[in-house]
Amino acid sequence: MEVVYVAGGCLWGVQAFFKTIPGIVSTEAGRANGTTSNLNGEYDGYAECVKLTFDSDRLSIWNIMSYLFEVIDPYSLNQQGQDIGEKYRTGLYSENMQHLKEAQTFIDEREDSDYIVVEVLPLSNYVKSANEHQDRLENYPEDHHMCHIPMYMLNKYK
User: Fold this and answer.
1) Whole-angstrom Cα distance, residue 154 to residue 150?
2) How far, in Å, CA of 156 to CA of 105, rounded?
3) Catalytic: which of 4, 6, 10, 65?
4) Of residues 153, 127, 158, 140, the one with CA closest to residue 29
5) Parallel/antiparallel/unpaired status of strands 90-94 and 119-122
6) Residues 91-147 pLDDT 10s
């Protein structure tokens, strides 16, 4: 099993989407690569993200990036759908440098690579989100209207 962290705007939809992908073992809503060390409820500089534990025999980083690009606008800086701000930036973060290399290669090999603003960075820090944010759309499906990912995408791979 391996772990990566993906940011794709509001974490609720991203978590719901990735839970449906074959080869994803578990997901956890959180925040990554922030600038504060003493959180006290503040998440300065953090990106909303989902920690993905995946079976590397079934999924590659290339696959994960492909799935991520299905549910984000890779050209939009700090905004996905109606969610605007630094915490809604897109990216892939990992402590494994090979993951980062593969993710960057995925971007570099695209014809539109010069326009893509998806971060590919080492994980500098991570904070698990409060329980109310874990599996939010599963527990509160009525909140889907606040999510930039269309409902049909949340069922695409089930």
Assistant:
1) 7
2) 26
3) 10
4) 127
5) parallel
6) 999 999 999 999 999 999 999 999 999 999 999 999 998 888 898 888 877 877 788
Are 95 and 123 contacting, i.e. CB atoms less than 8 angstroms apart? yes
10 is catalytic: yes
- Whether residue 39 is predicted with pLDDT greater than 60 in this model: the reply is no
Helix segments in the chain, DSSP class H: 11-18, 61-71, 97-108, 136-139, 151-154
Tokens (6 digits) for 36: 């504060």
The span from the CA of 139 to the CA of 154, in Å, is 14
- Weakest mean pLDDT among 37-46, 69-78, 98-107, 114-123: 37-46
Residue 131 burial by Cβ neighbours in a 10 Å radius (0-12, 13-18, 19+): exposed
Total residue length of the chain: 158
Q: Which of 22, 4, 13 is nearest to 136 (CA)?
A: 13
The model's pLDDT over 94-106, given as tens digits with 9 standing for 90+, comes to 999 999 999 999 9
Tokens 């960057």 correspond to what residue? 104
Distance in angstroms (rounded) separating the CA atoms of residues 122 and 134:
24
pTM above 0.85, yes or no: yes
